Amino acid sequence: MTDAQRPIVNPKNLKLDHWRRGSFFESSDVSFGALLGLKDIGIGYGEVPPGKSGCPFHNHHVGEELFIILEGEGTYRFGSERHAVGPGDILGAPAGGQETAHHLINTGTLPLKYLSISTIAATEICEYPDSGKFLARTRRPGEGQASFDFIGRAPSAADYWDGEPGF
């Protein structure tokens, strides 16, 4: 165990990073799996204000996510459905296509507080159905930051051989 690693972490003792994007996305959150010495499991804690969401509606093709609602009330948008959630609810987001797209929206009057747990895949593709974007990301083993990160929209009409020498 390194000096930064601990066997136990309590999110109330961690410094949260507050951020806001546009009028709908806002959160105070922190990732802390590395503090526990975890390399293949990501763990985070988030607090989302009323009327906001902590991330866009998205789905993963490789990684899986799990959310545990600690306090507050919200709506779990999952695929084409919406589910009311509250303290003690455990939400799954398996890898898959747009039928597993998901995000949490705070529909209550107090902050929505939750834990997020996810697999850390070396390579990931995410889709964002509301905006038509996709994300392609790879990580080198042992590195926290992406070594390749691309966000784009629907694929072009180019085929596999387009632009290659001799074509």
TrEMBL record:
<keyword id="KW-0479">Metal-binding</keyword>
<dbReference type="InterPro" id="IPR014710">
    <property type="entry name" value="RmlC-like_jellyroll"/>
</dbReference>
<feature type="domain" description="Cupin type-2">
    <location>
        <begin position="47"/>
        <end position="117"/>
    </location>
</feature>
<dbReference type="InterPro" id="IPR011051">
    <property type="entry name" value="RmlC_Cupin_sf"/>
</dbReference>
<dbReference type="GO" id="GO:0046872">
    <property type="term" value="F:metal ion binding"/>
</dbReference>
<protein>
    <submittedName>
        <fullName>Auxin-binding protein</fullName>
    </submittedName>
</protein>
<dbReference type="InterPro" id="IPR013096">
    <property type="entry name" value="Cupin_2"/>
</dbReference>
<dbReference type="Pfam" id="PF07883">
    <property type="entry name" value="Cupin_2"/>
</dbReference>
<dbReference type="InterPro" id="IPR051610">
    <property type="entry name" value="GPI/OXD"/>
</dbReference>
